[in-house]
Amino acid sequence: MTLGPEEVRRIAWLARVAIREEDVPEYARHLSRILEFVEQMAAADTEGVEPMAHPLDLPQRLRPDEVTETDQRERFQAIAPQVERGLYLVPKVIE
After folding, report:
1. Using one digit for the tens of pLDDT, what is the confidence trace for 2-51?
2. Is the confidence at residue 1, as pLDDT, over 80?
3. Taking the mean position of all CA atoms in its chain, how far away is CA 16?
4. SS3 state of residue 7
5. Residue spans of beta strands (DSSP E) within 53-93
6. 47: Cβ contacts below 8 Å, ≥ 6 apart
7. 30-42 burial, b if ≥16 CB within 10 A, otherwise e?
8. Using CA atoms, how far apart are residues 86 and 73, in angstroms rounded to an integer?
9. What is the mean pLDDT of residues 69-76?
10. Torsion angle (degrees, nearest 10) of CA 5, 10, 16, 19
11. Cβ 86 vs Cβ 78: under 8 Å
12. Which H or E element spans position 74?
């Protein structure tokens, strides 16, 4: 797929990216090469390939779920502008 100058300008406008007019042909060439590569990847046969979250089949290292800090809620709420029944009260922002 080959992109033309107008398509590059439109993409730049949508992305809110300012590009100089003299750079448009270079952007068109690079973006076209990217799209060609994506087309090649889409043509690959993936039938029977299981989706993966990570390329390496490693277990996730987990740490013990232990409390490491003391409860300081009373201390923090003592300096809050408004608190009610253990909750911080904040001004309404959206009506």
Report:
1. 899 999 999 999 999 999 999 999 999 999 999 999 999 999 999 998 88
2. no
3. 17
4. helix
5. 83-84, 87-88
6. none
7. ebbeeeeeeeeee
8. 8
9. 94
10. 10
11. no
12. helix 73-78
What global pTM score does this model have?
A: 0.51
Report residue 3 as tokens: 């992109």
Buried b (16+ CB within 10 A) or exposed e, 52-83: eeeeeeeeeeeeeeeeeeeeeeeeeeeeeeee
* Band (53; pLDDT cuts 50, 70, 90): confident
Q: Which two tokens stand for residue 50?
A: 């299981």
